[in-house]
Amino acid sequence: MESFFHKAILFFSKSVPGKISLVTGCLGLLYTIRWILGRGIPKFTDHPSKTSINTTFIRQLLSIIPIVIPSTTSSEALCIYSLSILVVFRTILSIFVSTLNGKLLKAIVTLNSQQFFRRITQLAIISIPSSLVNSLLDFITHKLSIRFRVSLTKCFAKKYLCGLEDFRMIYLDRQLAHDILTEEIDMFSTCFSNLFTNVTKPVLDIALFCLKLKDILGYRGPLIVLAWYSFSGFLLNILNAPVNRLNRIVHQYNEVYRHAQSNIIDFGEEIAFLRGIPWEKDHTNNVLNEMTTNTELLIHKKFMVKTINSIVSKYGALIIAQLVMSIPAFASNNWSIPVLSKDYIKTSSYFVNISKATARLRLTYRNISSLSAYTSIIHEGLNNLNGLKKLNFPDISGKYITSENIQFENVSVVTPEGQLLFENMNFLIEKGHHTVIQGPHGCGKSAVFRILGGLWPLYSGTVSSPDRDNLFYLCSVPYLQHGSLEEIFAYPHNSEIDKQRLFESLKTVRLEKLLERYSLDSAEDWKTALSPKHQQLLSLARVVYHHPKFVILDECTSSISIDLESEIYQHLHSIGVTTITLSERDSILKFHNFVLKLSTEGTWNYYKISHADEYIFS
């Protein structure tokens, strides 16, 4: 039996036909396993993904790098230099520890207690810098991630916030900008800062440990090791492909099932009214059956792949390691047990480190895939912001003038999509001309405010208005930033607050008891701390405090009682604030003396409130 196996090994290893047969058999076995794993998987079309690693990803990343690493002498660059030094030093320490382990075993085999305790002392000493280097690598990597995030956030926020006053910002995907500022930049910074150590450390480990293996085993040892890990990685990628595809199919069916259940919750009354319960039951059961069938198939495929993965990664690597480590013993007769033991422990440690580095490189691919996705999103956001400045609107001929009053002269109110709402609008709101902008829902009341604020393009006509310190705007859900009461009243400036005037303003809107619950300098989240009514009152108190010349009130008293609403309007008029109210309620007319009446047909009337309803413009 032994002679049969011996002859078979000689045939496959020595003769050319044997080698061809061996390669052909391995390829046939690989194809058979791949076919078995792919069998039974439903057809599935992958959509184009933004996570692919290609030249587009590299080009996008190179465009972002100057933002996060502005120069070769920046703090970010210094962190990278420090990481480079620490990575090399860490690998050298790992090699030294592996060599020291071999010497320890040699001292045990030779029963040399003096050498043993000397090596133990060296190991205890070397543990201090080794631990320090590992901690420093993590520390600097996290610092680098924070610096990347700060630099990228400042760049993006500067472009984004500076453009808010430009009407072109209406063409920007605000949700994308929000996601980039709150999530994507953070994830990108983490992935990009980890990328350096995740790539350089394992590559350097593989290179240096293979060089050390060469000193003991010659060129054959490192070449066999590298060939095995390359082959096993390629093999596992091929075998994992069907399982990954099936995993995506299961995820897709999970989403369909979740969506079906959400529809039943969200549209339950409509489904019940249309007698759609039997259809929904059949639909959800069919989706559930597909999901469970494919999940069971995935479990079977994973069982096969995990078995093969264990054979290749664990036992295959162990067999290759034992074969390579046996080279010094069988290649020469001039060896001693102490030396052989020392070399065996050293090569064993080298193999462990090479194996860890190879596994880390495989995980790095996932890190790069995630980095590719975040890079694509951030690059898209930056391109959108830069592209807004290049948008050209040759038809826009309107102009804005700073004036003591608010006046529209031959203004055409046009939406950003190009829809004409009102044509040749003319009206003048002087100081004391308290005006109501009235009309049904969706007629364009807010459009007038947006044209006034420059938030929509002014295609024609002239808009005159005071500077922004004398023109306030309040909506039904007021903007109250996270901060103290002093910061709320000072917004958008950072000036000192007159505390006595602040108290009087709160007293005017009956919010003086607010100071009993919150101090002036305590930071709060006012959206959760206050009810909608108190939020509206606090925003009105800001208007009382600043007493601008004009204030636009967009349904900002909807949660306030009628008597308190009347008191606030009377007080604003008494301190010289001209109110412009956007409302559908007729009860608001008594606080004003002019009306801008709008309709959904595109007509408008501006007139003084009187029994005769005298028209000023129409």
TrEMBL record:
<keyword id="KW-0067">ATP-binding</keyword>
<dbReference type="InterPro" id="IPR050835">
    <property type="entry name" value="ABC_transporter_sub-D"/>
</dbReference>
<dbReference type="Pfam" id="PF06472">
    <property type="entry name" value="ABC_membrane_2"/>
</dbReference>
<dbReference type="GO" id="GO:0005524">
    <property type="term" value="F:ATP binding"/>
</dbReference>
<dbReference type="GO" id="GO:0005778">
    <property type="term" value="C:peroxisomal membrane"/>
</dbReference>
<dbReference type="InterPro" id="IPR003593">
    <property type="entry name" value="AAA+_ATPase"/>
</dbReference>
<feature type="transmembrane region" description="Helical">
    <location>
        <begin position="20"/>
        <end position="37"/>
    </location>
</feature>
<dbReference type="GO" id="GO:0016887">
    <property type="term" value="F:ATP hydrolysis activity"/>
</dbReference>
<dbReference type="GO" id="GO:0006635">
    <property type="term" value="P:fatty acid beta-oxidation"/>
</dbReference>
<dbReference type="GO" id="GO:0015910">
    <property type="term" value="P:long-chain fatty acid import into peroxisome"/>
</dbReference>
<keyword id="KW-1133">Transmembrane helix</keyword>
<comment type="similarity">
    <text>Belongs to the ABC transporter superfamily. ABCD family. Peroxisomal fatty acyl CoA transporter (TC 3.A.1.203) subfamily.</text>
</comment>
<protein>
    <recommendedName>
        <fullName>ABC transporter domain-containing protein</fullName>
    </recommendedName>
</protein>
<feature type="transmembrane region" description="Helical">
    <location>
        <begin position="221"/>
        <end position="239"/>
    </location>
</feature>
<dbReference type="InterPro" id="IPR027417">
    <property type="entry name" value="P-loop_NTPase"/>
</dbReference>
<dbReference type="GO" id="GO:0140359">
    <property type="term" value="F:ABC-type transporter activity"/>
</dbReference>
<dbReference type="InterPro" id="IPR003439">
    <property type="entry name" value="ABC_transporter-like_ATP-bd"/>
</dbReference>
<dbReference type="InterPro" id="IPR011527">
    <property type="entry name" value="ABC1_TM_dom"/>
</dbReference>
<keyword id="KW-0813">Transport</keyword>
<dbReference type="GO" id="GO:0005324">
    <property type="term" value="F:long-chain fatty acid transmembrane transporter activity"/>
</dbReference>
<dbReference type="GO" id="GO:0042760">
    <property type="term" value="P:very long-chain fatty acid catabolic process"/>
</dbReference>
<feature type="transmembrane region" description="Helical">
    <location>
        <begin position="120"/>
        <end position="140"/>
    </location>
</feature>
<keyword id="KW-0472">Membrane</keyword>
<dbReference type="Pfam" id="PF00005">
    <property type="entry name" value="ABC_tran"/>
</dbReference>
<feature type="domain" description="ABC transporter">
    <location>
        <begin position="406"/>
        <end position="618"/>
    </location>
</feature>
<keyword id="KW-0547">Nucleotide-binding</keyword>
<dbReference type="GO" id="GO:0007031">
    <property type="term" value="P:peroxisome organization"/>
</dbReference>
<feature type="transmembrane region" description="Helical">
    <location>
        <begin position="78"/>
        <end position="100"/>
    </location>
</feature>
<keyword id="KW-0812">Transmembrane</keyword>
